[in-house]
Write a structure and sequence with these properties.
single chain, mainly beta, five-stranded antiparallel beta sheet, 1 helix, 3% helix
Length: 247
């Protein structure tokens, strides 16, 4: 089943614009060995489709993670300017997106962006950038059934690397894709939230991580449910430099 998502080049300008609740915009270049690598989705081979008055760049993404829907949890945009192998620039005029399910039951999105003027080369390669903004981030993240044996548990791109429980004290190493300063922790017991009476936190801003030691008024159980609250959410944008060639 296919569903047209629609859109125009104005989406690109809106996509990169700031918003009031955003703490910071972070553009993360993809440094993987293969430029189409991502743990949540696969980026297909981009193609150029020539037209008399211009050309389309087409690219398809398929989901690797059923917990995140491509049409609901991400915004996609292709760069306004693309460049051919001679250095000539082309300007985007319109953009459209189509959400569908593949024959293999994979969640997929096809992005088509139209550029002018028409191509001069018979077999061009066109360089462009795909931008992806994840929109699924939440301020509150709850981790269930945590104990001392847990290592590197991740939820909503917030990761607890290690946990140590001793009597009334809890030690954690935490990493996040957002700024970790000010993250608030509480122990959930039933419908109640219990806050530590004291804490010592050592931040590592370069790695967006911190090591913290918390002390509670009473001894802790062996298995915990923890709520972490992010005070702010950065606008994360993933950047994928790509090359499209004629079909």
């Amino acid at each position: 089943m296919k569903r047209l998502l629609g859109g125009s080049i104005l989406l690109f300008l809106f996509f990169l614009a700031g918003c009031n609740e955003t703490f910071e915009t972070i553009v993360q270049a993809n440094n993987a060995e293969h430029p189409t690598d991502h743990h949540r989705f696969e980026i297909g081979t981009p193609h150029v489709v020539a037209e008399p008055d211009g050309f389309f760049i087409e690219i398809m993404l398929t989901s690797k993670d059923p917990d995140y829907a491509l049409d609901e949890d991400y915004l996609f945009a292709i760069s306004h300017i693309s460049i051919d192998e001679t250095g000539k620039e082309y300007e985007a005029q319109s953009s459209e997106k189509e959400h569908f399910v593949t024959d293999q039951d994979q969640d997929a999105v096809l992005i088509r962006q139209f550029y002018t003027p028409a191509l001069e080369s018979e077999a061009p390669s066109i360089d462009f950038t795909l931008y992806v903004q994840p929109t699924y981030y939440e301020h509150e993240v709850v981790f269930n059934k945590l104990d001392e044996h847990v290592r590197s548990v991740e939820k909503n791109d917030l990761t607890i690397r290690s946990i140590d429980i001793k009597g009334k004290k809890l030690a954690l190493v935490v990493e996040d894709v957002h700024n970790v300063k000010g993250i608030e922790l509480a122990l959930k017991q039933g419908q109640e939230y219990i806050y530590p009476i004291s804490s010592i936190t050592d931040h590592h801003p370069h790695f967006n991580s911190f090591h913290a030691e918390y002390e509670f008024a009473q001894s802790l159980p062996n298995t915990l449910t923890l709520r972490m609250r992010r005070p702010h959410l950065d606008k994360i944008i993933w950047e994928f430099p790509l090359t499209a060639r004629k079909k």
